[in-house]
Amino acid sequence: MELSRHIAADPREPELDNVLIETPMPEGGGWLSWPGRLLAWVWRKLPWHRWTWKQRIVRTLAGMLALFVLMVGYLAITAPLSKSLQPMAPPEITLLAADGTPIARNGAVTDKPVRISALPPHVWQAFLAIEDRRFYSHWGIDPRGIARAALSNVTGGSTQGGSTITQQLAKFTFLSSERSLTRKAREMLIAFWLEAWLTKDEILERYLSNAYFGDNTYGIRAASMHYFHRQPEKLTEAQAALLAGLMKAPSRLAPTNNFPAAQKRMRLVLHAMAEAGYMTPQHAKSVPTPRLDVRNRAELPTGTYFADWALPQARQIEAAGYAGQTYRTTLDSRLQAAAHRATRQVPAGTQVALVAMRRNGEVVAMVGGRDYAQSPFNRVTQARRQPGSTFKLFVYLAALKSGLSPEDTVPNTPIEAGSYRPQNAGRAYSPTITLEDAFARSSNVAAVRLFNQVGDEAVIDMARRLGVSSPLPMGDPSLALGTATMTLLELTSAYAGVAANSFPVEPRAFPVPEAGWFDWLLDGKRSLSKRDHEAIEGMLRATVNRGTGRAAMLRAPNFGKTGTSQENRDALFVGYSGDLVVGVWVGNDDNSPLNGVSGGTVPARIWRDFMREALGEKAAPPPRKAADPDGPVQPLDVPDLGDIPVGDDNRIRIENGQAVLSTKVEGVPLDVTLDGQGLRIEPSGSASPALRSSVAPPPSATP
């Protein structure tokens, strides 16, 4: 505290003359007090202190009015008032690859607008009761509602919003999802504008005809048909209350996904209707819970396996229901093309799936089958198949956690006791084997013995920690060999957790948000000890270097595990190198055995070919022209025209904008070109006109 010094001189007390007295100065004195002194000087210069109290009130109100006019002028320029009275466009989502290439466009499920006069009163009353009881008396905003919501939020009550139906209409039809005071001010301005130019019934009709009701459904007519298969003019009180309850959180409360929550919210709406005087409390309690009547809807596929998986995630993104939204995904067009080239080597009639993700879960490539046009069923995300020996990752991690090390040994002799007696591939046995060799060579008997030693609870717990959510049976030793089914995406995500040593890893179609400073304290991530992580990576590396995964070897360090299910019904290879984690599955949809295909053959080679191109060990085709986000959707699940085989020794390629068929006739390579000038046949690579044979088009041909 700084002290002020002055001389005290009291004529009645001569002895105190010239005595130095120190008194404390106010806090913030010294050089820090100059802002206060400046404000005091400005205050003294203003005529405020000479004004009467009436002048102060009048001039303060005038200043506030001027500030309000300036704010309204600014918002009027920046707010979309001109389009607020125009017909609303149906919501559409466009998905882009990471480079901006459009990969899918998907419109919402909509229907004709409704008329308030044609609806039963209990339909619109349900929405007014729960969303805006004073809708017919306010001018677009409800000060009482805002005050009530603010009081509830401040006093720790349930979190409430003070937006009116008019404000909600302005928000979900004309504004973005930005959370800011500026956006809120624009929302209020548009609400005033709507109230000035539309009647209350017209506002309510627009609201009911455009609100989001979950399940990609917009408008009460589309929602009533989707959930109850009836027109909104015939909705019962219970059905109307259930639909009105969805407004709070349409995706979370959609009855097709969470019926108990939707039912609880419906009861709250009925209670609100009773409080508003639309029905008696006794009647509200007696309203029965409605039954859903969801009919199969002809869903239009998007054209790619990845987009089919990504679109539901886009709908979950905040403000995903707004019109004209464009979302950049994590899909890498270059890696997607490399995945298609790598998966072409599967035997005829056999299905294939490949998923590539970064260590943080961002999916960069996805092939869900041989041909999307023939089968949009996604074998990465929808097919539940046995992982085979790739499941041994969890067994050996549990063993390492229990204190074992890669150099410890386990018997590698046939199991001759008990009801479950697995065998090693090729009946290859030995008295003992180290854990590292047992993992690399995929010894079945060693894995089962380790499973019995550490216990099924430890193995299942390790799988759960790494993000496996599929059912894993207790007390079944065959679980050690991967007999429980799961998706390839789920399995690959678990390996990504090991690669990053941070798990569980959530697979994502959209970029992972950048973590804040303290997010790591709350994200619930776990990791392996340095000893265990180095040990399991040594085992995964040994599998590729000298074990069953030698066909997947790269020049760069890579780690992986082969898997083959019972009777060779599923063949897998899952591994990682650099920042990429990739899972490959080969099998038949009818679950029939594969002929001579195991995890260390075709899947390992597919994995290697993809990774060689992804990591730059193999030259990739020249890049395509720059992407146009507003251009047409690119069918990334269709191979390049130049990659399409047409019979033995035949290929189609693009040359100078024309399709050219390269073939052989009696061993002579020929190029066949068909264009507006006719059919041309010439030796492959020849440009001499003398060697060409032309067939003119018929007279009726269009040039």
TrEMBL record:
<feature type="region of interest" description="Disordered">
    <location>
        <begin position="676"/>
        <end position="703"/>
    </location>
</feature>
<dbReference type="GO" id="GO:0006508">
    <property type="term" value="P:proteolysis"/>
</dbReference>
<keyword id="KW-0812">Transmembrane</keyword>
<dbReference type="InterPro" id="IPR036950">
    <property type="entry name" value="PBP_transglycosylase"/>
</dbReference>
<dbReference type="GO" id="GO:0071555">
    <property type="term" value="P:cell wall organization"/>
</dbReference>
<keyword id="KW-0961">Cell wall biogenesis/degradation</keyword>
<dbReference type="GO" id="GO:0008360">
    <property type="term" value="P:regulation of cell shape"/>
</dbReference>
<dbReference type="InterPro" id="IPR023346">
    <property type="entry name" value="Lysozyme-like_dom_sf"/>
</dbReference>
<keyword id="KW-1133">Transmembrane helix</keyword>
<keyword id="KW-0573">Peptidoglycan synthesis</keyword>
<dbReference type="InterPro" id="IPR050396">
    <property type="entry name" value="Glycosyltr_51/Transpeptidase"/>
</dbReference>
<keyword id="KW-0472">Membrane</keyword>
<dbReference type="Pfam" id="PF00912">
    <property type="entry name" value="Transgly"/>
</dbReference>
<keyword id="KW-0808">Transferase</keyword>
<comment type="pathway">
    <text>Cell wall biogenesis; peptidoglycan biosynthesis.</text>
</comment>
<dbReference type="GO" id="GO:0008955">
    <property type="term" value="F:peptidoglycan glycosyltransferase activity"/>
</dbReference>
<comment type="similarity">
    <text>In the N-terminal section; belongs to the glycosyltransferase 51 family.</text>
</comment>
<feature type="region of interest" description="Disordered">
    <location>
        <begin position="617"/>
        <end position="650"/>
    </location>
</feature>
<comment type="similarity">
    <text>In the C-terminal section; belongs to the transpeptidase family.</text>
</comment>
<feature type="domain" description="Penicillin-binding protein transpeptidase">
    <location>
        <begin position="353"/>
        <end position="611"/>
    </location>
</feature>
<dbReference type="InterPro" id="IPR001264">
    <property type="entry name" value="Glyco_trans_51"/>
</dbReference>
<keyword id="KW-0328">Glycosyltransferase</keyword>
<feature type="domain" description="Glycosyl transferase family 51">
    <location>
        <begin position="102"/>
        <end position="273"/>
    </location>
</feature>
<keyword id="KW-0378">Hydrolase</keyword>
<feature type="transmembrane region" description="Helical">
    <location>
        <begin position="57"/>
        <end position="77"/>
    </location>
</feature>
<keyword id="KW-0645">Protease</keyword>
<protein>
    <submittedName>
        <fullName>Penicillin-binding protein</fullName>
    </submittedName>
</protein>
<keyword id="KW-0511">Multifunctional enzyme</keyword>
<dbReference type="GO" id="GO:0009002">
    <property type="term" value="F:serine-type D-Ala-D-Ala carboxypeptidase activity"/>
</dbReference>
<keyword id="KW-0133">Cell shape</keyword>
<dbReference type="GO" id="GO:0030288">
    <property type="term" value="C:outer membrane-bounded periplasmic space"/>
</dbReference>
<dbReference type="InterPro" id="IPR012338">
    <property type="entry name" value="Beta-lactam/transpept-like"/>
</dbReference>
<dbReference type="InterPro" id="IPR001460">
    <property type="entry name" value="PCN-bd_Tpept"/>
</dbReference>
<dbReference type="GO" id="GO:0008658">
    <property type="term" value="F:penicillin binding"/>
</dbReference>
<dbReference type="GO" id="GO:0009252">
    <property type="term" value="P:peptidoglycan biosynthetic process"/>
</dbReference>
<keyword id="KW-0121">Carboxypeptidase</keyword>
<dbReference type="Pfam" id="PF00905">
    <property type="entry name" value="Transpeptidase"/>
</dbReference>
